[in-house]
Model the fold of this input.
Amino acid sequence: MEKKHFVFAISRQTILFQLSMMLASMYYAMLCTNWQNPGLYTDGEYASASTYWLKMVCLWLSILVYLFSMIAPILFPNREFG
Done:
């Protein structure tokens, strides 16, 4: 019995998209930690809870888009992603 292997062509656009998603996730991580110095402007407290949750929601949405871009070709094998 032969194993089925998935082979996907990697285009320049795919690489640029993955790079931009990695950079965006790093940027959101740095926003959430206030650039590794949480007490720089607010003595260790967040300026407001709404700012914190806005950053967290943006981070979660970015992660979801990235994960969907990774698993979409497997979930939808008959769709042309090229």
Q: What stands out?
A: The mean pLDDT is 76. The CA atoms of residues 21 and 66 lie 7 Å apart. DSSP finds two helices and no strands in the chain.
